[in-house]
Amino acid sequence: MSKVAAADPQAVVIKIGDIPIRVVTDDRHFLRVVQDRYMGFLSCETHAGIDLKLDLTAPGRISSEEDIRVARDSARWSAERGDFRLDWDSETGRGQVRQSANPYSLDGALRILHTLLLARRKGFLLHAASAMRNGRAFLFFGRSGAGKTTISRLAPADATLLTDEISYVRRDAETYLAYGTPFTGELAKLGENVSAPIAAVYHLVQAPENRLALMTPADGVRALLESVLFFAEDEQLVKLVFQSVCDLVGRVPVYRLEFVPNKSVWDLIA
Amino acid sequence: MKNCYIARSPMVAARQLGGEMVIMSAADSTLFTLNEVASLIWKSADGATPLWEIVNGKVCAEFDVDPEIALADAERLVGELADHGLLLLTNEPARPSPVGAERSL
Asked: How many structural domains does chain B have?
């Protein structure tokens, strides 16, 4: 991390899913907050290709509206939530985030930017926990309360947590990889910055007993699409995300996993 | 619906998954699933073949159905898909797409 700070005292490069994004601010205190927040996902690369300049405003200047609006005008993207506004040019790779000095806001802007970047790289963000075991990744998705955090907590000691909240899925040659992310849920624990080929995907349903059932490809796609994070009303990118989800389901089994919240559920996994 | 021609809208993405065709409207991300007969009609929707010919030549050839009933069902189906913006209906065959034009599949 000291190398990053020495290379440019006003910037930090956050690399998630092999995509580096350079974040620039002249507020040194907030820069340190960002460095701490994304510890483990910082890169020494000097040329990230994607630059975000932070325009920090006084707290409370932006509303607390939770709805996200993402729009495109030619190559210029804008994304707005109550606590930030992101403007980004996909041709130059440069953009700006207007927000208060709150890492939660930067986190939101980065998530949205990654959804846009991933769509063209045959990937997507999924509202799912993921873990790596024996060199293979396993994804667990479902509605809020389905048990993503629970299954992360129950993971055996030899499993590596990639995320308990937002899974990062990206195609690599003939396989799909899951990457660790710093996007946290209830565990408030950053994932490990590693990746592995996805071996299986599980649709979580809490039930009185453990049961595993292979889903049909069509059911798998329908269920997964409900958990994909994508906010842009952009027909081209929507199609690309749909095709990536279908492609993943064509290569990786999707199971419905009914489970009771104890460690025995992991006997069904892998 | 005599001489009805059907073409897939460029505003959709579709994928055959097992025996089902899953279609998503790129405009509002709504999902649709077609059964085998409807999938066959969908795949035949090239804008140049009249619906009656699709029904007679493909649906009736592959499935044991009465041609008149099959055509009536097909007309109802394509009407519904058109209402959702998934299919384009015309009374004339579509001109061939220029080389390199985007396809929905």
From this structure: 1
Considering the entire predicted model, what is its pTM?
Answer: 0.88
Identify whether B93 is part of a domain. no
Q: Chain B contacts of A218, Cβ < 8 Å?
A: 17-18, 20, 22, 33
Q: Can you give the CATH number for the domain in which B60 is found?
A: 1.10.10.1150
Q: Could you please report the per-residue DSSP string of chain A?
A: -HHHHHH-TTEEEEEETTEEEEEE-S-HHHHHHHHHHTTTSEE--S--S-EEEEEEE-TTSS------EEEEETTEEEEEETTEEEEEETTT-EEEEEEES-HHHHHHHHHHHHHHHHHTTTEEEEEEEEEEETTEEEEEE-STTSSHHHHHHT--TT-EEEESSEEEEEEETTEEEEE--S---TT--PPPS-EEEEEEEEEEEE-SS-EEEEPPHHHHHHHHHHHEE--B--HHHHHHHHHHHHHHHHHS-EEEEEE-SSGGGGGG--
CATH numeric code, A123-268 = 3.90.228.20
Full domain range(s) for residue B29: 10-88
Domain assignment present for B99: no
pLDDT digits (tens, 9 = 90+) for B21-52: 999 998 888 899 999 999 999 999 999 999 99
Mutation site, A231, A239, A240, A251, interface B, largest B CB count within 10 A: A239
User: In this predicted model, what pLDDT tens digit does every residue of A125-149 receive, in sequence order?
Assistant: 999 999 999 999 999 999 888 999 9
